[in-house]
């Protein structure tokens, strides 16, 4: 008999492990997460939170508080641009305003909030939803059995160990994942291209900003390549340094033997001013790399976050991609644990998330090359895709997605997906019982949503028929059409965004389109029952 029995054990409780615990809690699964560190992140690291991640935080009820805290820390809606030095020459803008031109696609906005501020919010909500987070606790070992995972965890201070019996284990233990190594899962990709550092400093740089609202400032100085992020009230921030010296043949190990004097010299150089007093608070080494795991699961163990894909911060996607891994996995684990879905549904985690992780890592690499390290060359590099396509326009393909022939591109402008099978169901503003909300607010726990076009009454009848006959594995397929009580779409924005007329779109609990029935097949009841069974991988 083990000391602790839990449905899911999570290894690592930083950004991604904590998100996994939170999302499992949201789906009613009380997970245990163990974390080596004594508390939540102390280094800011990730700060750019995409609309997709904010949509996920909205679903679990913390969008508003995250927005409030983000405003305290950073000026929002800033630019992503490049300079020779902060005081000196501007070299160009990649994005002039973080949210310009993207507000129509989501109920949420991109925000800047660092991990050190975000993690306590995730922690507190995860706790409310039933997760247990144990800090200063290491996973020591684990073994997989046919029907469970057996693990040993140890408290770092007391040395006390506990045995854990879990149905499943999620490893969110970072780029150097010990679990991934134990499983023998290899990384592939472009390797490590810089031993970089982040230098945390204090300095009043307000005069150097000259009123500009800048979120990420790339520094392309003849002697240094990296980027700044500056916090409100513009008296602190960090400089990440990736390379120094000759831009054509730079030194890329900037971490080894680094001294405080050198850090000071670099910050001064990148600021482009001798007049601003600077204090160095901290230095954190990290590898700039673009690598992805050859598979995301083995048996009952899943890897997520940096354990599955390690990418350079250019683009701001490492943490976001991990949050989306957690989101894809959590509802599947919950429904399999409740026996609402077949265990094969869990195999679709790898099939759906790995191509997205690989694509996003390559896109981050392309930005690293074009923004910071042209010396790496563009041979074999993916062309830079628009940020919005990377963040919201990715598409899943797996046996649980009922594709109609060619699944289409892996990524596209989310405005063009029109609820194509495998893509994120689009956002449209609707009214529910007199209250304005997003279509995304309807997707939820253990429930599929069926949107019907204006001429699709026969589908509603089909749904009622299969429910009555007990042919659906789920009681909870919510149907929304023009005649649904309380559902109001006066401007037809759902039909427009989803491209619906006489057809339907079946949406999974994670807000991805599982099935479209564009034409009326002979037996609609049977087609619908079969689609739900496929989406849940039920025999
Ligand atoms: C300078 C910089 C800027 C960045 N900016 C952004 C950004 O703007 N947006 C973005 O999305 N991403 C950004 N990133 C990337 C982001 O920080 C990472 O992708 C993210 O932190 C990964 O989270 P994780 O939880 O997967 O891994 P980690 O944060 O590495 O956490 C893994 C955790 O597992 C714990 N652990 C490991 N082994 C064990 C064990 N055996 N037992 C218990 N615990 C264990 C570790 O202590 C650690 O806390 C940035 C990174 C850097 C370096």
- Rg, rounded, reads 24 Å
Estimated structural class? alpha+beta
Q: Major beta sheet, specifics?
A: 8 strands, mixed
User: Which molecules are bound besides the chains?
Assistant: flavin-adenine dinucleotide
Q: If helices are DSSP runs of H or I spanning 4 or more residues, what is the number of helices?
A: 14
Helix amount, in percent?
Answer: 25-40%
Overall shape: globular
Straight-line N-to-C gap: 33 Å
Average pLDDT taken over every residue: 94
Unreliable segments (pLDDT under 50, ≥5 consecutive)? none
**What is the number of E strands?**
25
The proportion of strand residues reads 25-35%
Condensed summary:
With 539 residues, the chain is an alpha+beta fold. 28% of the residues lie in helices and 27% in strands. Strands 1, 2, 7, 8, 9, 10, 16 and 17 form an eight-stranded mixed beta sheet that branches. It has an eight-stranded mixed beta sheet with strand order 5-4-12-13-14-11-15-18. Strands 22-21-24-25 form a four-stranded mixed beta sheet.
């Amino acid at each position: 008999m083990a000391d602790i029995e839990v449905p899911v054990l999570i290894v690592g409780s930083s950004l991604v492990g904590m998100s996994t615990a939170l999302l499992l809690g949201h789906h009613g699964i009380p997970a245990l997460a163990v974390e080596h560190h004594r508390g939540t992140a102390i280094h800011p690291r990730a700060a750019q939170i995409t609309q997709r991640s904010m949509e996920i935080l909205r679903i679990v009820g913390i969008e508003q508080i995250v927005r409030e805290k983000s405003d305290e820390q950073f000026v929002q809606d800033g630019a992503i641009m490049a300079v020779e030095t902060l005081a000196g020459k501007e070299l160009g803008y990649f994005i002039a305003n973080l949210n310009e031109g993207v507000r129509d696609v989501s109920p949420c906005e991109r925000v800047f909030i660092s991990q050190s501020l975000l993690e306590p919010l995730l922690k507190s909500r995860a706790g409310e939803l039933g997760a247990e987070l144990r800090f200063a606790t290491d996973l020591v070992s684990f073994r997989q059995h046919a029907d469970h995972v057996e693990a040993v965890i140890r408290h770092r201070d007391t040395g006390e160990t506990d045995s854990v019996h879990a149905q499943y284990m999620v490893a969110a233990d970072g780029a150097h994942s010990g679990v991934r190594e134990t499983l023998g899962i290899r990384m592939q990709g472009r390797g490590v291209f810089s031993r970089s550092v982040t230098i945390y400093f204090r300095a009043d740089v307000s005069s150097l900003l000259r009123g500009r609202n800048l979120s990420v400032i790339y520094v392309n100085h003849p002697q240094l390549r990296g980027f700044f992020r500056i916090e409100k009230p513009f008296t602190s921030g960090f400089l990440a340094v990736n390379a120094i010296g000759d831009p054509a043949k730079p030194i890329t190990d900037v971490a080894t033997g680094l001294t405080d004097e050198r850090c000071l010299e670099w910050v001064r150089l990148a600021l482009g001013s001798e007049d601003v007093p600077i204090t160095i608070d901290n230095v954190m080494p990290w590898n700039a790399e673009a690598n992805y795991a050859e598979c995301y699961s083995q048996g009952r163990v899943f890897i997520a976050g940096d354990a599955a894909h390690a990418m350079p911060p250019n683009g701001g996607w490492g943490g976001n991609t991990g949050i989306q891994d957690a989101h894809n996995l959590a509802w599947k684990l919950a429904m399999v644990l409740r026996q609402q879905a077949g265990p094969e549904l869990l195999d679709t985690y790898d099939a759906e998330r790995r191509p997205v992780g690989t694509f996003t890592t390559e896109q981050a690499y392309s930005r690293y090359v074009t923004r910071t390290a042209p010396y790496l060359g563009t041979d074999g590099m993916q062309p830079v895709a628009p940020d919005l396509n990377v963040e919201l326009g990715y598409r899943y393909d797996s046996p649980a997605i009922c594709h109609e022939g060619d699944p289409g591109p892996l990524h596209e402008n989310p405005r063009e997906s029109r609820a194509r099978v495998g893509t994120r169901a689009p956002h449209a503003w609707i009214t529910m019982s007199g209250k304005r909300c997003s279509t995304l607010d309807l997707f939820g726990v253990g429930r599929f949503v069926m949107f019907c076009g204006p001429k699709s009454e026969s589908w509603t009848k089909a749904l009622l028929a299969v429910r009555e006959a007990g042919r659906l594995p789920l009681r909870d397929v919510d149907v929304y059409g023009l005649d649904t009580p309380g559902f109001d779409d006066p401007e037809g924005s759902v039909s427009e965004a989803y491209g619906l007329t006489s057809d339907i779109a079946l949406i999974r609990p994670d807000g991805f389109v599982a099935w479209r029935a564009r034409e009326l097949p002979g037996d609609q009841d049977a087609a619908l029952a079969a689609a739900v069974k496929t989406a849940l991988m039920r025999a």
